[in-house]
């Protein structure tokens, strides 16, 4: 990416959980720089610390050691500058799609007319215009997740932190949402940290794929995805894509054996 200072910087981030009285190292000295406007995906075996890494970046968890810097300032708690999208769609069930999307803007004290217009724009971006007045319970899983994306985007966070946002969706909806996310990213250029279990998804979306390893949770390998945007079906089916995917697959599935015993 560019030579300017990183947007997000993990510096010696270390985290130890207490599991039934035993220390368990969930993150072991993670050092990682993410450039402004970069799309970074994180893959790795279950329990390797991906969500822990995201929670630290979101300011929801204070690490036992090290720090995360955003624009050079230390993360000390959640901020509207960092939009978080969790795996389970966290929508307010009693609010319509529009009200959900407007909610963050209301908190930010944006005026009513501006709020309305902005919500409309982002609802359109995720293709939910016809459902703006619907309640979440009447939407499919994919539609709920698109609403959560619109809500996170509308607040205009400089950084988007997404923890397996498409994990629960069927393959077709997933591909559609990947494309609408990339579309929005190309237009609005946020810095994105995106966690996934899916190696294809990790490669399809990213500038770089971070492969983590477990026990202790750490960065195992970083793989550049040297493929152009927009990413298309043609790219997804290309030999270049397959080669990178195979590299990532290999480093996820053939990791060095655990140097630390699991807690009982
Ligand atoms: N609050 C907690 N207390 C104790 N241990 C925890 C806590 N949260 C996570 N852990 C442990 O830390 C490790 C990393 O958890 P984390 O949720 O970050 O993994 P993950 O990579 O996101 O896994 P998955 O892919 O299954 O979502 C796991 O072994 C987990 O058991
Ligand atoms: Mg997780």
Automatic annotation (TrEMBL):
Keywords: ATP-binding, Nucleotide-binding, Transport. The keyword ATP-binding applies. It comes from the Bacteria. GO terms for molecular function: ATP binding; ATP hydrolysis activity. PROSITE patterns: ABC_TRANSPORTER_2. Pfam families: ABC_tran. This is NitT/TauT family transport system ATP-binding protein. It comes from Actinocorallia herbida. The lineage of its organism: Bacteria, Bacillati, Actinomycetota, Actinomycetes, Streptosporangiales.
């Amino acid at each position: 990416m560019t030579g300017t200072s990183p947007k997000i910087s993990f510096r010696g981030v270390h985290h130890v959980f207490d599991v039934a009285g035993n220390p368990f190292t969930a993150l072991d000295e993670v050092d990682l720089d993410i450039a402004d406007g970069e799309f970074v995906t994180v893959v790795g075996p279950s329990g390797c610390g991906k969500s822990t890494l995201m929670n630290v970046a979101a300011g929801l968890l204070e690490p036992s050691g090290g720090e995360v810097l955003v624009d050079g300032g230390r993360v000390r708690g959640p901020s509207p500058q960092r939009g978080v999208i969790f795996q389970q769609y966290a929508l307010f069930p009693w609010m319509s799609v529009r009200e959900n999307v407007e909610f963050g803007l209301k908190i930010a004290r944006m005026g009513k007319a501006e709020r309305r217009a902005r919500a409309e724009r982002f609802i359109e971006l995720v293709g939910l215009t016809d459902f703006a007045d619907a309640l979440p319970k009447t939407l499919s899983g994919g539609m709920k997740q698109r609403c959560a994306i619109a809500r996170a985007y509308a607040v205009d966070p400089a950084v988007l932190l997404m923890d397996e946002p498409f994990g629960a969706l069927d393959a077709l909806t997933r591909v559609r949402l990947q494309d609408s996310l990339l579309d929005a990213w190309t237009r609005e250029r946020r810095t994105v940290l995106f966690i996934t279990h899916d190696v294809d998804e990790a490669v399809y979306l990213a500038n770089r794929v971070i492969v983590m390893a477990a026990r202790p949770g750490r960065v195992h390998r970083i793989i550049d995805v040297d493929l152009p945007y927009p990413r298309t079906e043609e790219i997804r089916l290309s030999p270049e894509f397959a080669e990178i995917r195979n590299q990532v697959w290999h480093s996820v599935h053939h990791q060095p054996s655990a140097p630390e015993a699991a807690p009982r």
